[in-house]
Specification:
Layout lengths: L1 E4 L20 E4 L8 H5 L4 E4 L6 H6 L5 E4 L9 H6 L4 E2 L6 H17 L1 H9 L2 H5 L16 E5 L3 H12 L3 E5 L5 H6 L1 E2 L2 H7 L2 E4 L13 H6 L4 E5 L8 H10 L2 E6 L19 E3 L8 H19 L9
Parallel strand pairs: 1-2, 1-3, 3-4, 4-5, 6-7, 6-9, 7-8, 9-10, 10-11, 11-12
Helix pairs in contact: 4-7
């Protein structure tokens, strides 16, 4: 059996091994693949793995040997799932590998906004503390989270994990989600979106990107938030109108904004967030601890085993 991995560098930049897939056949790994290279590289392979390289209907038409598509991520919008289904090709994803990693990173972003640890570390190393003449100093307002309210938009696995951490830090938790989960009832209080925005000191996004919510964080959304609130995004960059968020930061409506995702990745030089004040941006790395990436490989092995045994798992189409 021939297996092709189209963009392996994202999941495995060299610190993991692809050997776990050798049991299924001949494995070819490409670090990255341009869309116009995908069909040729897949060729007569029966299994293809992708992270961000699109698998379109045209590619499926050019690769008739394909029997299984594995997405090395949770989001599977890069695959034409309907066309794959029509051709009898299962599409498998990795549904739950980064919950703890992303929840942890969400609070890394929030704590950076609250305390600016990185900035103060730089100031200490460049001599500002040595020269200030006092036993301590701080260059930015410090913000305590205990007793504050966090509003979590998207209360799935990651959102609930964020809620648990918030509770442990003494925060009140409000949640907005299309459906309610019994576990969620023990973590926070489900409310409508307007209530969440008007009451939350911190708003954190953890919902999938859909046609309905694209650009939902716009000027109107921001106007409903408390003055001086924090906004976090570790979900998808397309949820934001980034120009509106930048304006809210410049106007002081938002105390701070932090995101691990932007609308176009890698970030463009003209992204308005790059010049906005009180804005922390990281390069889509919340999911990247080795523990999480090992789970991607383990889950994909299980998907292939299930497919070959006639008991498919993690299918999305």
């Amino acid at each position: 059996m021939k297996i092709v991995i189209l963009d392996g560098h994202a999941v495995n930049p060299g610190d993991l091994s692809w050997d776990c897939f050798q049991q299924f056949g001949e494995v070819t790994v490409y670090e990255s693949t341009l869309p116009n290279q995908a069909a040729e590289r897949i060729g007569d392979a029966e299994i293809v793995m992708t992270n961000k390289t699109p698998i379109t209907g045209e590619i499926l038409n050019l690769c008739p040997s394909l029997r299984l598509i594995c997405v090395l991520a949770t989001g599977y919008n890069v695959v034409d799932c309907e066309e794959a289904k029509r051709r009898g090709i299962p599409v498998c994803n990795v549904p739950d590998y980064s919950t703890n990693s992303v929840a942890q990173f969400t609070f890394s972003l929030l704590l950076e906004l609250c305390n600016r640890v990185g900035l103060h570390n730089d100031l200490v190393h460049q001599g500002d503390w040595t020269n200030c003449g006092h036993f301590c100093f701080w260059n930015t307002p410090q913000f305590e989270l205990a007793g504050k309210t966090i509003g979590i938009i998207g209360f799935g696995r990651i959102g609930r994990a964020v809620g648990r951490i918030a509770r442990a830090m003494g925060m009140q938790v409000l949640a907005y989600n299309r459906s309610r989960h019994p576990d969620g009832e023990t973590i926070g209080t489900y409310v409508n979106l307007e209530t969440l925005l008007t009451q939350a000191d911190v708003v954190s996004l953890h919902c999938p990107l859909t046609a309905e919510n694209t650009g939902m964080v716009n000027a109107q959304f921001l106007s409903k938030m408390k003055d001086g609130a924090f906004l976090l995004n570790t979900a998808r960059g397309g949820l934001l109108n980034e120009a509106d968020v930048a304006e809210a930061l410049k106007a002081g409506k938002l105390r701070g904004f932090a995101a691990d995702v932007v609308s176009q990745e890698p970030i463009r030089e003209d992204n308005p967030l790059l010049s906005a004040p009180n804005c922390v941006l990281t390069p889509h790395m919340a999911w990247a601890p080795m523990e999480a990436r090992l789970r991607i490989l383990d889950c994909t092995v299980a998907s292939i085993q299930g497919f070959l045994s006639g008991n498919p798992v993690n299918t999305v189409n």
